[in-house]
Each structure stands twice: as C-alpha cells, then as structure tokens.
Amino acid sequence: MELNNLTAHELIQKINNKETTPQDIVASLHKRIKEKDAQVKAYVRSDELIDPTHIAGIPVSIKDNICTDGYNTECCSKVLEGFKPPYNATVIEKIKAAGHSFLGLKLNMDEFAFGSSTENSHFGPTHNPWNLNCVPGGSSGGSAASVAADEAIWALGSDTGGSIRQPASFCGIVGLKPTYGRVSRFGLIAFASSLDQIGPLTKDVRDAALLTNIISGHDANDSTSINCAIPDFTKSLINDVHSLKIGIPKEYFVEGLDPEVKKVAEESIEKLKNLGAQFKEVSLPHTEYAVPVYYIIATAEASSNLARFDGVQYGFRADSSNLIEMYKKTRAQGFGEEVKRRILLGTFALSHGYYDAYYLKALKVRTLIKQDFDNVFKDFDCIITPTSPTAAFEIGEKTDDPLKMYLSDIYTISANLAGIPAISLPCGFTKKGLPVGLQVLGKHLDEEMLFRVAYTYEQNTEWHKMKPKL
Amino acid sequence: MSIDKQIVEHVAHLARIELGELELSRLSKQLEHILGFIDKLSSLDIEKTHPTSHILPINNVLREDTPKVSIPVEKALLNAPSKKNNFFVVPKIIE
C-alpha cells in the first residue's frame, strides 16, 4: 500500500511506530501528483510542493482562498494574480502548532468560491476522479478531488452555501462545515462573511474529527469566532446510534431529487434504522425560499467584500491614466463572468430603491429558515438528507444557465443561513458509478452528534473504502 | 421585476466594473431571470418578522487598545502593483 493512499490517522500511527517519516509521505504525494494531476487538475500553478525545511507531521492540502505566508493565494482569479500573502491564516498557524505542515501547492476552486462545479476557475476546471468527464462539485472541487484521488492526505476547504459538502458528496469523501464561528475566518479571503466557514475534507470520519480538533477555537483576530470550550471530537467517534431521534425533512424528498440518489439515501436511512436510530418525518416549511434568500444575502455581502480588488494594493492592475477608469478596467479584466454577475446582483440588492424589497426581505426570511431548524431540534437530535439532489454532472452541462447551477446547492444552503454544522459522508453509488453523499445536520455547536452518527454509519458500511480507478 | 440595460449600467457603475455592449445585454437578461426566481420571496408575509443579519448573539466585540507589532511596511507593500517611498501609487486624481 502506497503511503498517499492512507488516512492521516493511519499515517500518524505509522510515524509513531517509526515505520515511516513525514519526508516519505511528502515524497509519496509528490509522486502521485506528478502521475495523476495532469488528468485531475486538483492543484493549480506550479509552486514548490513544500519547503523541505518545514516538513512535519501529516501535510494538509489547502484551498486557494486560505492565506499561506509567502505562497501564492489567488482565489483562482486573475485579479489576485501573483498575490503572496504577508501572513498565515489562523487555521494554517494552528496546523503548524499541532505539528503538521501544509503544501505550498494550492487547490483549485471556483473563482472567489462562486460556483458549484469548479468550472469558474481562472485556471480551468478540475475533473472528478470517478469520471473525468464530470465536475468534482464546488467550490472546493480541488480539495475534494485531491483527497479522492489520493493526491492529498487531507485538505481544507471553505463552505458558504455547500462548497465543502457538495464536492465531498460528488467525490465520495467526508466533508464538514462546522458551526458558524467554530473556526476562525482570519486569513480566509472573504466571500460572504455571515456564511463562510472553513472545514475539513477527508477520507474518513476519524480524520475529519482530528482536523476539526486542530482548526477549531476562538481567535481574537476574528470577532465572529465563538469563545467556548472545544470538545475532543475524537471522543464522539462512538459506534452507536441506538434510540437517537433523527428527522427526515419532507421538503427535501420532492421533485428535482434524482430517483437514484433518493433510493441510495433511503437505503442509508434504512441502515441507520436497523442500527437502532429512530426516524420520523419532519417539516422545514421555508426550505423552498433558501436558494433565493441565499443569492441575495451572499451576493450582497460579496459585492461589499470584493470592493477591495481595485488594482491598488495587490494583484492585477489594468493600465489607465484615470483612477476611476483604472478601477473599472482592472475589475472588468480581472474578474470572470460569474464574479461580475454576483457583484452586480449584490450591488443591485443593496442599492437605493431596492434595499427593502430585496436585501431586508431576505434577512427576514433568513429568520424564518433559522426558526424552522430551531423547531425541529426541540424534539430531534439531528436531521438527515441527501447532500445534493444529483450525483456529479458533466463538465459544461450547467454552465449556460446560472440559475440551474444555483439550484444544485438546494440542500446545503440552509445550514449556512442557520449557522448550524453539517457533514457529508459517502453513502453509495449511482448505476454509472458516481458517488452519492448523505448529509447530517446538527444543532448549533453540536458537531459531536454529527461525528457520532457519521462514524456509526461508516463503521457499518464499506463506501468510504472505495477508490476511483485512475 | 423587469431589468433593463439602464439599471444594469447604473449598478455596474456603482460596482466600478466596465461592461461591453454584449456583456451588458447578456447580463441584463440573466439578472432578470435570476431576480424573477427571487421574487418568490414576495409571497411571504414577513411584516412582523425580525431580520437576521448575523446568526450569533455576539455584538460589538472590542479589544484593549494596546500597541502590537504589525506587518512591516516593506512586507505590506510587497504585492503592490506600483509603489514609491513607502506608498501605493495610483493614477493622478487632482489635475
């Protein structure tokens, strides 16, 4: 067995037993990336893999929107061409403090995390390791594909509306969006500040718990990070769901859900039922409003956050002798089409005359969506749904219709709006051999419940052991 | 909600993005389509609902005003497209 095929916890064991070294692990990743990444295209640019003097522990692969001191961080956008952050994101400092290292080579993503397929990257699309004609999902498509292809041991992504969970689902791996505020956003290049959260993409649930342990915690540099005790999440890896109360929202099992995905999800629910969990249908009545609310709030916040890319302090600048024209040309040439679309939508929703009708209204409906979850969680320990209504779609299939693309996040967006944690784990395959993901949503700050349910399901199935043939 | 080119042109100016003629008409159509979908929010009665701009009950997080070491000027200017004497250089704004 090659080292790069193993999980982080297996490798930690091997290092402790003196059977391998961090140097060997990096060498094995390097070899795999050289052999396979020309097809998968999970990584971007050709930076140095890792500073040889900094190799330690189990290297973490990093999405291109998380700042790494001295290593290019461009959000896969032309507007940030050549940007080398002068500091590390807090999660990077925490990885180093825990005795691990990170790869200087960064992972592909939709430009500024705007997308559900990684097709919006300035560097071109990443390919799904299970079928190279399909998308890996997005926006953390490079993170998910690298882990699935054994080109990474474990990876970090970011999730604003499903950007960790949906690609994890499409690539057959585990992905967690922690509770909003659980992980510091300092050094994560902002998309929508009230929704963004960094989280792990891993080969199994134990690795997700380990990496969540490392990156969680209060940070004075992020005023929205929560100051509370962090449990040891590996203690939640309990193979027992007996008498847990799990809700199945009826609004998620409706038209638009692919029949094969539905069947796989229902079989997984049956499995958990046989293991002792109690299931009951519940209602999240405002589910159908989640996508429209999201595309107002997320674009409004993005339009404000992306105002900083004006060609003055970093990245690309278009030549002009006039300042306003320099801004306009820099942004016209530096941003891709989806970024422009979202900035315009967000600017419109915040502009004079439309603020009350769009932005304020969306904030109010966000309250209703949050209340839906509060009501269900009074009586239930967690909620289970499919992660995405379909398995991975083909490259190019949805690029002409932005709205169709937005609807592929329909099951993941609500967790961001409500700020609750949610995990996606592999739960089966379609007839064409594409992975399907199961989503578990939990109460505010109750990642422990998610790890317990996910771990139990994983220990009693074999899906997480399946590898794509590359 | 009907979106004409004039509205998109105005919004693009607010967002400081230059748009070509083709881009303008394509984006106008797409934005109208997306806003048409978003209009389903109008069917809800939310007169008395409180807006949620932020999910956590955290407000006005302040810190002690104590000096700390910050990033040195040379490092902060490392990524500048144009710089001179410890400043960012931009096109002239006063004639």
Q: Distance between termini of chain A?
A: 16 Å
Mean pLDDT over all positions of chain A: 96
Q: What's the multimeric state?
A: heterodimer
Strand order of the largest sheet of chain A: 1-3-2-4-6-5-10-11-9-7-8
What does this structure look like?
The complex is a heterodimer of chains A (470) and B (95). Chain A is α/β, with parallel strands linked by helices. Chain A has a domain at 3-241 and 417-465: Amidase signature (AS) domain (Amidase signature (AS) enzymes), CATH 3.90.1300. Chain A has 14 helices and 11 strands. Chain A has helices at 8-16, 22-40, 90-97, 141-148, 165-171, 205-215, 259-274, 290-305, 323-334, 337-350, 355-377, 402-406, 413-418, 447-459; strands at residues 43-44, 60-63, 102-107, 154-159, 174-177, 197-202, 245-249, 278-282, 382-386, 422-429, 435-442. Chain A has an 11-stranded mixed beta sheet. In chain A, a hairpin with a 5-residue loop joins β10 and β11 (435-442). The two termini of chain A are 16 Å apart. The model of chain A has no long low-confidence stretch (mean pLDDT 96). Chain B has helices at 5-14, 21-38, 73-76; strands at 83-84, 87-88. Chain B is mostly helical and 95 residues long. Chain B has a domain at 5-42: Orthogonal Bundle (Histone, subunit A). A two-stranded antiparallel ribbon of chain B has the order 1-2. In chain B, 34% of the residues lie in helices and 4% in strands. Chain B is flat and about 55 Å long. The chains are: A alpha/beta (470), B mainly alpha (95). At the A-B interface, α8, α9, α10, α11 and α12 of A face α1 and α2 of B.
Annotation keywords:
heterodimer; A: 470 residues; alpha/beta; Amidase signature (AS) enzymes; 11-stranded mixed sheet; 14 helices; 11 strands; 36% helix; globular; B: 95 residues; mainly alpha; Histone, subunit A; two-stranded antiparallel sheet; 3 helices; flat
